[in-house]
Amino acid sequence: MNSPTLGRALILLMATATGLAVASNYYAQPLLHSIAENFGLSTTAAGTIVIAAQLSYGAGLLLLAPLGDLFEQRRLIVTMVLIATAGLVISACAPNLPWLIFGTALTGLFSVVAQILVPMAAALSAPEQRGRAVGTLMSGLLLGILLARTAAGLMAELGGWRSIYVLAAVLMAITALALYRALPQHHSHAGLKYPALIGSVFRLFVEEPVLRLRSLLGLLSFSLFALFWTPLAFLLSSEPYHYSDAVIGLFGLAGAAGALAANWAGRLADRGRGALGTTVGLAALMLSWVPLAFAQSSLAALLLGVLLLDLAVQLVHVSNQNAVIVLRPEARTRLNAGYITCYFIGGALGSLLGTQLFEGYGWNGIVVAGLAIGALALLVWMLAERKRLKLHSQPA
Description:
- By secondary structure, the chain is mainly α.
- It has a single domain (8-393), classed as Up-down Bundle (Growth Hormone, Chain: A).
- The chain is 79% helix and 0% strand.
- It starts with 7 loop residues before the first helix and ends with a helix.
């Protein structure tokens, strides 16, 4: 079934599923200090939970997401949601750090179902609505990432840090049933066997310079996102804040406004102005670290920085994704998988860097790294745009 069949109700369900799936990788972030106390862990050891989530998600993107171009997508999506649910159950029951990492990794591996839903939405949408459809799903994704922190913090206050994993498992099981009933059957066969299918992802990087550029920008932008959010729980649980898990989780609400940028970016892409969204987003991404430099002593500066950072990351991400999935309609899932793999590798690197810098240099180390990476991302984009415009202005 390849004709556009995506109605408002279905796209909202897909956006909800996308948000819930990706949220599964972020419940631990506001709880890191509580989990560290429970298991007797250092800051760096606790940070391995977040790194495991992002690396397993990246592995799933490379190894599992391309299956969307091989198997019937409704059945694949429902199966992956159920396996991710099993990982949440394991995390909820984990007696120690290795079991928690195993449950986290299993969930992360199969929560890449979100990145099968996005190209499926693009395929089922009319061309003039494709950017908006992708933007809506990405709004769901960002809300899932950010509200996961709020939900985790509140549930931790009510029933301990494990309770969020129980609730998430129930919601994911319900989502699997809803998707099975609502999604149309959709098969986009690439005509390749699995090894060739995975190899074709790497070949797309060789053949598509836009994919290479956008993947690098995605890697750098999401590394900044993780660089900020991973050590935030440690900052807010220490002087001068001494906040509880619930209050730390509420900071996800401040960043949730970034979801508004997704629809704007989608509309810009539909009007052929995706480059503008990228430029604005990267500039804002670098500038967000100016107020964040005062986060240790000013709550207002911290909230302003969170808002600006998340708006910028989402604006860049949706602009990137819309630029990538239109390159080859027959390979949307693989293009998206290649891009998102780099995106979450950036997240893992940002988390690793964040825990190491915070432990060694405190919040000032985080800010210096954030400004440097933000400036690098903007420089890469401006040089690429300069080259593109120069080539475009030359006579054929």
